[in-house]
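We close this part of the discussion by returning to an individual protein. The encoding preserves chain order, so positions in sequence and tokens coincide. The sequence in question and its structure tokens are set out directly beneath this paragraph:

===
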Amino acid sequence: EPHLVESGGGLVQPGGSLRLSCATSGFIFVRLDESYDLSWVRQAPGKGPEWVSSINSTSDTTSYADSVKGRFTIARDNAKNRLYLQMNSLRSDDTAVYYCVIGASWGQGTQVIVSS
């Protein structure tokens, strides 16, 4: 079962940037015989989980929620077994706990607060 640890969250002013990182272990990060998505999901205070972005393990195809399209970029480093989320032009409604998700496995989350 994948073990996922997110980092990189923090307090940032509107318009600022952050890069989230997800360190993974306990599974084969690069597989040629199985396709899966590596994803970021966020949960804002008082709201349910919201899918943010995914990257496919074999095709590297990326997808984004409309709310973050053009501002966030998902990427992965196969050599380091890491998943990233570059977040630019942050807004107050991006405030949430961000989770790295692979299959049914979730990390513990990293808090992002966008506030002046």
